[in-house]
Amino acid sequence: MHRVKVRVVEDALDANNTIARANRDDFDRHGVTVVNLMSAPGAGKTTLLERALRDLEGVRVGVLEGDVQGSLDADRLASLHVPVVQLNTGNGFGGECHLDANMVRSALPALPLEEIDLLIVENVGNLVCPAEFRIGEDVRIMVSSVAEGEDKPLKYPLMFRACELVVINKLDLLPHVDFDMERYLHHLDAVHPGVDTIRLSARTGEGVEEFRAWLRQVPVRAPA
Amino acid sequence: MHRVKVRVVEDALDANNTIARANRDDFDRHGVTVVNLMSAPGAGKTTLLERALRDLEGVRVGVLEGDVQGSLDADRLASLHVPVVQLNTGNGFGGECHLDANMVRSALPALPLEEIDLLIVENVGNLVCPAEFRIGEDVRIMVSSVAEGEDKPLKYPLMFRACELVVINKLDLLPHVDFDMERYLHHLDAVHPGVDTIRLSARTGEGVEEFRAWLRQVPVRAPA
User: Fold this and answer.
1) What is the ipTM of this complex?
2) Predicted TM-score (pTM) of this structure
3) Judging by beta carbons within 10 Å of its beta carbon (0-12, 13-18, 19+), is residue A220 exposed, middle or buried?
């Protein structure tokens, strides 16, 4: 039984990777670099985008919002005057806990790829499954919040390993929570040695300019 | 294709429910009431248990810790001198993002069911899939943190609907975050009218006695 289950899972991931490559071909054809933005629920992905995209000069950005249900996050980003497309995973039973390549593919016709340089895909808030499904992205960014505790890299290692940047958000809460930054960085280094990190507060704006700078050089970093 | 996928999912949930009922029979035979404790990563489930179980007189408690990897939470609870069993979901590819009835069943031989009245199963931190998989529990408790934002009931409605109690944790952070309690309760009421709520801070201890009282009456509430 177990063997069969693993086989089915592997087949599903193979199928996903095939579609992810097709997405990637489409993105490449339009010269669009893609960021897969992942985090636990409530880590502050949308607030970070609200802050960072407002002054991201020189890059034409689009956003694909993944949520189980509703369009709250897409609505929040509407005032930024960038193209935002909402993708809901909640058909069927309770909703999918992640975006997969096929869901992203279904949203491509709604995205003005020829008008953007950088597409940011805000994944469903979850620290497990989003890391397992490639969507055709160039880089992955993981947003972690100091309110979540310093043990998260050890408890969800795949997620922290499957990204090129770890944003440590809600720095303004640091005086009010039991979070030892040195210990967190030690844990992170154990699961993903040398990964880029940026400490910021999306709420106050502290550190957000460093995040903007990182975003601006993503198209340069990404392999052609 | 879509139809086939939904059919497979339904079969999987049917199979899960059958095993959940077998678990439930075993729990009933031993007179054990079971709580399924769910939340997003870092909402404070383990800290809450550390606080609440220390002085939960009159009830013999056991804990089943579900994590993708590691035994950090089980280690933290070891000092409580209650039986704690760790269950890791991380075999195979990246780890399962929830506990299912079969995983819990595999842990039953390690649990001294004849020596406990109340089993608390700490699920994997995730706001989607744990709500979809019954494990043989009597009641479900959802721990939500004010640091996660007031929109979570609307974004993850199944999770907030599939529980008998919503704990609103990290009350001590309320002055430091943008969280409108009235709006949160309004959202919660929209997805699960009348559900019990307890506001507390597992960190400071405020409100934890009310949570203990709620736990103590679980065996009484549960159908025989």
Assistant:
1) 0.89
2) 0.92
3) exposed
